[in-house]
């Protein structure tokens, strides 16, 4: 069934995208990692070539392609270890909020920019006191005439520095109602009065990915920037998390596969040339290969089900935690096959090691995934 | 059998812990890590207070303590900060060979120098080829002593060392005929170049050292001619235990931070420490560090009795480096997003911990060695 997930058109697209990556992204990536930011022009290049939101319908300027194409982009970027340029977040996690819950006017206003790369998207949920527990967000949006007045702070926001359109989760009611019924999603545009950005935070990995703090002080946003209905934000987020977690699992799986492949290539070459062979190595390599095969089989079946519109919350939560822990397990072991060289930044395995540590944390921590699975199992 | 530390050992442990808490500023640690700088000021203070070279005989500036006491200090340091702890623990790297195999003159010259913090000594044994026998770095006999040629890799603290203890091939037909030679950094013909940025342990420079017709007198031999390979095995044993101590320190540090954070951090209306997912982790972390500590202390104790338990020593490095890795992995996880941010003061523990798996020899190699011991393929000492 899912073994032929991809058809010829997908394979051709993959090859074209790989060529784009190797010409326009990979040669400059080390430099961007040092500068801790991706140039905005690179986003535009992605857009010009049709690699942002390729699934959006033609009437909004998109290519109207299937989600497979987006997933191929995510996968290839993770193979190359390009986490700084978070096209997956932009195209497949944030843009769907606008696409699904936005009205026609909003879609016409913003989606063409999302496709061209003139607009870079972010979604702001996390706050200093609201991480796993989204119901405890404190950022408020109080309606005054034709505007919302937003106050609060968001942290660890990916694309936090570059983004010029941010879907912000705010409390529009405080007090009596259920904490799940007073969250609204409001689009904040760059330059809005009262909106500012904090620091670009330093991290273990993903150095070129701008992870920022957003600050709202009496920030004035027109009511027309509300996505969908007031008070439904929490349910909108729950609805979209399935795809977010699938994208996360795709990235984890790809990072394990890429690191495994580069390690095996290196190991074989070292073994021939210089390195004494250790009998226990081969056994460990077989275990890694098995982990990767199991992950890939499971993941492809979920990609297939998701594209066919099935509710796979339980399984995708399983895939998110398992593939992200597996990727770290595999990459950690790969480093050992490089011996001391694995610790040197000149060898790419070290960067993959640092980058992979993010997967079990973002898009819902692995502990939250297990909580969801437990609920779905009725325990 | 008595598992208690002596009063003296507890005093040492407390003194090291107090020193680390007082001197290892968390923000300074991040800064050293970012700038890849050796923490010289803290190191000097540690030397002044007698925390470096504790195993050296008293007449050479040491305290004649055992490896167990040394391990207690290393553990306390790494517990407080993985980066500073490892840097201090490695500041006398190789001097163990002078203690064990050096002659009177070498001991007088090197040991007080190291213990008093006048300078750094390191040792160079690894090479690009990664074989330990035969080595490509050679020492050929000349009229005045030796002429050394070759390139050593992964020399810790190479760029700031005042003395380098280098292991050279002296017998060309016998792979194990190697000789340990003490070199002054300034002797001429030595070129040090950085091996670049590292994932962690960034306060300890790791360098390539090239020896080009370096001429040394015969009295610079440490130990006997052609016995270097075996001297190195003893040194490795000692280092495996010291690495184990770094591992339990880092693992305990990860647990300390995870406990503190999980009690303080509230989500869903209660501290995250009250959730099963977190409690499971904390219990596992405690188990890991406790197991690693037991075997590390046992290994150090056996080493100090003069009859090192080689199996325990191999297990020590494996278990303690795994504990350090797993505990810091989970500590980062418990911190969540904050854990991945440098300012959380935990992620560098995770990056640092990984080196222990790679240092000296990776776990796979040690498992292989341990299996050979168990299978009776290695003669026990």
How is the secondary structure organized here?
The complex is a heterodimer of chains A (379) and B (381).
Chain A: H1 8-35, H2 40-48, H3 67-79, H4 87-101, H5 104-116, E1 121-124, E2 140-144, E3 147-158, E4 165-171, E5 183-189, E6 195-200, E7 211-222, E8 226-227, H6 233-273, H7 279-307, H8 313-337, H9 348-356, H10 366-376
Parallel strand pairs in A: 1-4
Antiparallel strand pairs in A: 2-3, 3-7, 4-5, 5-8, 6-7
Chain B: H1 7-23, H2 26-35, H3 40-48, H4 67-80, H5 82-89, H6 95-101, H7 104-115, E1 121-124, E2 138-141, E3 145-156, E4 163-169, E5 178-184, E6 190-194, E7 206-217, E8 221-222, H8 228-264, E9 266-267, E10 270-271, H9 276-304, H10 310-335, H11 337-340, H12 347-358, H13 363-374
Helix pairs in contact in B: 1-4, 4-5, 4-8, 5-8, 8-9, 8-10, 8-12, 9-10, 10-12, 10-13
Task: Describe this entry's structure for a reader.
- The complex is a heterodimer of chains A (379) and B (381).
- Chain A is an alpha+beta fold.
- Chain A has three domains: 118 residues, Acyl-CoA dehydrogenase/oxidase, N-terminal domain (Butyryl-Coa Dehydrogenase, subunit A, domain 1, Orthogonal Bundle), CATH 1.10.540; 110 residues, Beta Barrel (Butyryl-CoA Dehydrogenase, subunit A, domain 2); 142 residues, Butyryl-CoA Dehydrogenase, subunit A, domain 3 (Up-down Bundle), CATH 1.20.140.
- Helices cover 51% and strands 15% of the residues of chain A.
- Chain A is built from ten helices and eight strands.
- Chain A has a four-stranded mixed β-sheet with strand order 1-4-5-8, with helices on one face. In chain A, strands 2-3-7-6 form a four-stranded antiparallel β-sheet, with no helix packed on it.
- In chain A, a hairpin with a 2-residue loop joins strand 2 and strand 3.
- In chain A, helix 7 packs antiparallel against helix 8 and helix 8 runs antiparallel to helix 9.
- Chain A is globular, with a radius of gyration of 21 Å.
- Chain A starts with 7 loop residues before the first helix and ends with a helix.
- The model of chain A has no long low-confidence stretch (mean pLDDT 94).
- By secondary structure, chain B is α+β, with helices and mostly antiparallel strands.
- Chain B folds into three domains: 109 residues, Butyryl-Coa Dehydrogenase, subunit A, domain 1 (Orthogonal Bundle); 106 residues, Beta Barrel (Butyryl-CoA Dehydrogenase, subunit A, domain 2); 146 residues, Butyryl-CoA Dehydrogenase, subunit A, domain 3 (Up-down Bundle).
- Chain B is 52% helix and 15% strand.
- In chain B, 55% of the residues are buried.
- The model of chain B has no long low-confidence stretch (mean pLDDT 95).
- Chains A and B meet through helix 7, helix 8, helix 9 and helix 10 of A and strand 9, helix 10, helix 11, helix 12 and helix 13 of B.
